Every structure is written in structure tokens, then in C-alpha cells.
Amino acid sequence: MLGPIFQRELVTVPRRSGHYASRVALIGLLLVLGITTWQASIGFTREASLGETAAFGLLLYQIVSYVLLLVTLFFATLSAAGAVAQEKDRRTFVLLLMTDLRDYEIVLGKMLGALLPITIQLAITAPVLMLFLLLGGIAPEQVLETLVILAATAIASGSLGALVALWRERTFQALALSLLFVALYLGLVQIIGVLATLGQSEAAIEHIQAWLDPFAALQTVLAPPATGRNGFSPAYGFAAVMLVWTVTLNALGIRGLRRWNPSGEPIVPREAPEAVRELDESQELEKRAQAHAAPGPVRHVWHNPILWREICTLAYGRRPLLVKFAFAVVLLLILYFAYTELERPGGRPAFAAAYGLVPLTILSLLLVAAQAVTAITSERDGGTLDILLVTDISPYEFVFGKILGALYNCKEYIIPPLLLTLYYATVGALAPLPANHGWRTVLELNFGPFLAISGAILILFAFVVVLGIHVALRIPSSRQAIVQTLGTVFFLSVGTLIAIYLIIINGGSFANQWLSFVAFLTVGIGGLLYVFSADRPSAALSLASVACPLAMFYAVVTVLIGKPGTQESTEPLLPFLAVAGAFGLAIAAMLVPLLSEFDIALGRTVAPNES
After folding, report:
1. What CA–CA distance (Å, rounded) separates 563 from 431?
2. Is 1's pLDDT higher than 80?
3. Rounded to the nearest 5°, which phi and psi values hold at 17?
4. What's the pLDDT tens digit per position in 204-222?
5. What does 471-525 look like in DSSP terms, one character per residue?
6. pLDDT, the chain, mean
7. Dihedral of alpha carbons 473, 478, 484, 486, sign
8. d(CA 413, CA 48)
9. Which residues contact 171 (CB under 8 A, 6 or more apart)?
């Protein structure tokens, strides 16, 4: 019923090399989460009572459910968007339109085929979630409602990603807009909570949010009312709303498939050879200058043609301001919620700056990473990377042209976190202040943290740019390169947040958690080692794989429990030096092979030990 596209994906997905590895990795991640949570809440030095086991089961189930929801929402959106965008970059999507395939077979086949790996992951996590029933603390209907929420989130977010990719013609625009639309949707749903302050019923507002927001729906499952629910469960209401969204989004995609694709590139007529031969030399040069591919006057190309193309041409599609406008809207929502946390009537919460800075920085890092990796994958899929191989462009021109071009095109995503950090410094939200303080005290106490946080953010932006280029040049498959790049940024962020949460729920005590965090760090180191140098290992990349998770963990620990027995963090210089040194090492370790082994990395020749 879904056509040959879905049938092909159904047959080929189990044959992919990473099929079983991804399943084992997911179960291993859940196992590490279980060990870490047990060590953080109970420990291995004594036996747990029945009540403690039930409390542990509920706590672990909450952590696992939220992690699975984040992973499902993120990867379902990007997987569907990347599947369609990759076809467009390879110019094979037009061939699909020329066949006798029906419109719904193309749209639903690509979307559901891209969601097959996500479906398999949900299928293997269902038995794991059922095992939590043995620990106590949760009921079977909670497990069923959690799976319903995960499935509904996957199909709805996948439909959104596929629709955006059908609409836009470039991979970066498809990935960026998909992420931004998801963030915009979640932000707008949270705005509904403002109605509670306008005299509306708080219970009614929470019920509406639970039908629209996957995280709010999951919260109603994990923390049901003590008196029980009256009527329909919010989880099933959320699934019904997501089903309506899925039908609507796919209907729009089917209707706009032929109108949006092909995008309609202008065809420039060329001079006939007979007419060219009749012209004298001066007329021929003038005629050729007027017959160049791009309309308008001839533009002067810079000394570095790669950098010129990245900055001065539409290398990433038409109407690039659409992505920046969507980011601006999401930015306003984040700033609104950040401001409400600063001006909360009961006083500022601990680490108030994190409420705005953390989500904004993570979103900006994902957008910059998507720009960097698609700068290479789009060249490869479009066939222009092979043309670059036969030119006299040096490795320095290519690599730094791509790096500087990505940073320039993403300046609208890099500057806001820095400005927000400056704002937090001016209002005294980066460091604890004495009871009676003036503006001089605020500046003196917040100047050091401002420099440290700003420097760390800039280092992370440079890291994700180089990471995207490094992974895209190392992996020939564009889809795998995109997933590994964005997945690395995603799991580094989520892993850091999980470590923070586990330290907080244990009251800041680290002595009872070191064994579990060792296992947590081992998983992170292994993942980075695979992403950095799975096929071409090197000592520098291996050292960077170890240093980056350790540096992030050290920074988290020193910020949360830097001065035991107090509510203060340690001085910001040491965490900044740790992060800057580790990620600076990773940047250098990735750049050196790109510049010294440029021919090998792009396949122009083979390594000395290869045939």
C-alpha cells in the first residue's frame, strides 16, 4: 500500500552495518543510566529495602523516559528531513517525480522509511521499560502510555521534518528549519501556561498543555494525580492530537510535492558555436562575459574561491533569511522565559543564568554543526566535490574556506549566546552577590565568569565546526555523517545535563557516585573515539576523545560542588582552562590530518598502507 520506496527501506534497513550496533548501544546507554542512578540514589554498600527499590524504579523510569523522548524527538525529526534532503542533493528526487509513483507513495514512503530505525529502537526499548515493573513504583498502564507518547512523538516529528525537506531545496535549510520549528512549537505551547496568570483555570491549562506538549504529557504519566484521573488519559489525548498533526502535515506535503519540486532553476541560453566563431576576439570575450551562468554583472572572485562561494553566493539555497527569521522567533521565546526566571517574585533560583543560556547555546551549537557538516555533504551529493579534486585549490584554502564560511553564515546563531552572557553579567546573575552591592560590585564579581563562559562558548562553536567538516570528510555516507555530527553534539549536551541532574538529586555529594560516573564517562569516551577516528585512529584523536568528556565533567563538578559545604562554585578560570585545553586539543587533532592528509581524506589517493 505504501509503494516501492517504503518496501525498499523495509528490506534494506536490517542490512545496514550499524543496525545491530545501534541497538546494542541504546541498551548499553540504558544500562549505564541504571547503574549511575542506583549508585547516586542507594549505592552498592548496602542492601535496599522494598520502599527504596520502588523509589529507585520510579526515579530511573523517569530519567529513562525523558531521555528516550528527547532522543526520539530529535532523531525522528532529523532522520525524516535528512532522508528527503539527501535525495534532493543527489538530484535523484527529480527522477522519483518522473516515475509513475503516486504522490502519497513518495511522501509517505520516504517519511515512514526514515522512521523505521526509530521504530526499531522503540520496539527494543519496550521490553526494557516493562522490566521496570519488577522494581515497583510504576504501573503497567504507565508503561503503555509512555510507549504511546513516544510513538506519537516520532510520527508527528517525522512528518514535520519530511514536510520541511519537501518544501526547502537544501539540506541545511531542511535540518535547521526542522529543529527550529520543533523548538518554536514547544515554546508556543509553553506560552499557553501564561494564560494561567490571566485568571484561567490552572488545571485546565495544564490539561491543554498535556494534549499538545510531549514533555507535559509524559509528566502526567510519570506523576499522576493521587486521587486518580477522571475520564480520558492525557497520553491518549496527546496521541490523538499528534495523529491529527500527522495527517495534516502529510496532506500538505502530498499537495505541495509537485508545486515545490523541482524548484525551477533558471536555464541560461548558450551561444551557438557558429555564431561564436564569426565574432572577432574582442567581441568573443565580451560575449562570453555576458554568457556566464549567474545572471547580473560579473563578480570578482576572492583569492580563496571556497570562502568567496560560501559567503557571496547562495550556496545553501534561496531565501536563507527564512532560517534566521525562525531562529529570531525562537530566540525571543527563550529570552522571555529567561527573563521570567530572573524576575521571579520569590527570588532568583539557583543558577538562574542556565535557564536561558543552556537551551540557547545547545540550539546554536546544533545549527552551527548542521551548517558545517552540510557544507561538505552537499558538495559530495551534488557532485561538485569531485570537481574540486581536479583543481589546484590547496588544503588550506578548502578547509579554512569551509570553516570561515560556516562561521560567517552562522554569525546570527553565535552572537546571541554571547550577548545573553553579557546581559547576565550586567544584572549579576553569573556570580553570587552580597546583600548590599552596587554596580561596581556586580561588574567586579561577574567580569571573570563572563570572560570564562564567553571563551568556553567560542571554543565549543569552533569545535562543532571542525567536527562537522572532519566527520563529513571521513564518512562517505552523507546521512551517517549528519547523524554522527549532530548526534555527538546532542549526546554531549544531554550527557552533561544528566550528570548535573544526578549530582543535584544526590544533594551535591560526589563520594557515592564516582563509580557510576566512571561508567558514564567510559561510554562518552568510547562514543567520541568512534566518531573521531573509527577507521583512521591516531594518538592525538584518542587523547582528545578521553580529554573532552573528562573536561566537561570536571567543569560540571566544579560549578555545582566547587566549594563543598557552601553554595558557591569554584573560580571560573580552572573550568575554562580545562574545557579550552581539551576541546582545543580536539580541534588541533582534527585539523592536522585535514591539512596534511587532504588528498587521502577526500579520496584523491590512497594511504601508504592501503591498496
Report:
1. 14
2. no
3. -65, -35
4. 777 788 899 999 999 989 8
5. HHHH-S-HHHHHHHHHHHHHHHHHHHHHHHHHHHHTTT--TTTHHHHHHHHHHHH
6. 81
7. positive
8. 48
9. 82, 85, 86, 88, 89, 374, 377, 378, 381, 478, 482
